[in-house]
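Lab notes, practical 5.
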Amino acid sequence: MSHRNEQLLRDAYALFGKGDVEGFLATCTDDVAFTVPGDNVMTGEYTKAGFASDFIGRFMAHTQGNFREDIVDLVANDEHGALLLEHSVGHEGKTSEYRTNHVVTFRDGKIASWREWPGDLAAFDAAWT
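Output from the prediction step:
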């Protein structure tokens, strides 16, 4: 039997995958913090409102809908969750693929923080440049 926060993450990522940003953000606390490392168009720290506007705007402008995210593995407990993901990013006629990790913390049954941890930061930056 999986932990309830594993299902929360699966549901949240399914919502994001369908383009339901409002539904995805409903799985997050009001003060959630999103952190994207590197030196690329997505790099930054985002609030909930900033994710809905700035992050999604940058994301859509860069990928123009050419993005795929597959969950390879996922674990979660009461406090933390970790996802191993495969990403495929289309930009200007080329496709970049890389593996990355998302590490989250939970509070009151919701995602309270979210941080990207790419396995290869250079490949991550190249995909988002």
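Observations recorded by the TA: The CA atoms of residues 69 and 75 lie 17 Å apart. The chain has one domain: 4-127.
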